[in-house]
Amino acid sequence: KFPTMTKTHPRILALFDVDDTLTAARKVVTPEVTARIAKLKNQITVGVVGGSDLVKQKEQLGEDVIHTFDYSFSENGLVGYHNGECINKTSLKEYVGNDKLNKFINFTLLYIANLDIPIKRGTFIEFRQGMLNVSPIGRNCSQDERDDFEQYDHIHQVRAKMVNVLRAQFADYDFTYSIGGQVSSLSSHLASHAAAVDLIRRVPHGMGQDVLPQVPERRRL
């Protein structure tokens, strides 16, 4: 665990992404990064926010992630912890309802089935607490296949086109879409890192809104 002591500047917040920031994509944090975060945490308030669920966040950052960071947010801020205690858990199923979710999932699976892309694997839709992770190639692909698809998608804009179709088809769903990682698109009604910042502002005795600048949201399509 990171050491606990009085911070030098507790009202200053550093909020880190996981993949390609604290770790390489889907890899485990290195001891060097862990040590630097521990040193930083002694001085300021430190938080982590990522698109993956808490299980995957623990795999990358350690089982004690909700304690070792002052703030821990998974699913782009839809599930949040402060000093190990849950402060927010948004349920997409309760918000949208099963009927609407089924329509969205069925349409998306059919759309992916008709995609003409070099390879497909498995787990095309991953249901999380507060969001859906949609992957045209499938999340079961290998790292080499992820890398190849990322290059293919950069040229052919597979995910961007899919997001445009889903947004038009389900315009009444009040979903937010963003492209994340190498192979996924994220669909939710509140999927943005700004949600995490808003939660921090609302934590009793936390940093006040006057000392937290506006944090830009992830790129939306």
Automatic annotation (TrEMBL):
EC number(s) on file: 5.4.2.8
Binding annotation for Mg(2+): D17, D19
Spell out the reaction equation it catalyses.
alpha-D-mannose 1-phosphate = D-mannose 6-phosphate
What keywords does the record list, in alphabetical order? Cytoplasm, Isomerase, Magnesium, Metal-binding
The metabolic or biological pathway listed in the UniProt record of this protein is: Nucleotide-sugar biosynthesis; GDP-alpha-D-mannose biosynthesis; alpha-D-mannose 1-phosphate from D-fructose 6-phosphate: step 2/2
Q: Quick one: which residues bind alpha-D-mannose 1-phosphate?
A: R26, R128, R139, R146, S184
Q: Which GO terms describe its cellular component?
A: cytosol
Note whether Glycosyltransferase occurs among the keywords: no
What are the names of the required cofactors? Mg(2+)
Q: Which Pfam families match?
A: PMM
Q: Does the keyword Transmembrane apply?
A: no
Q: What class of enzyme is it?
A: isomerase
Q: How does it assemble?
A: Homodimer.
Q: Which NCBIfam families match?
A: HAD-SF-IIB
Family under the similarity heading: Belongs to the eukaryotic PMM family.
Q: Which PANTHER family match?
A: PHOSPHOMANNOMUTASE
Q: What is this protein called?
A: Phosphomannomutase
Organism field:
Aphanomyces astaci (Crayfish plague agent)
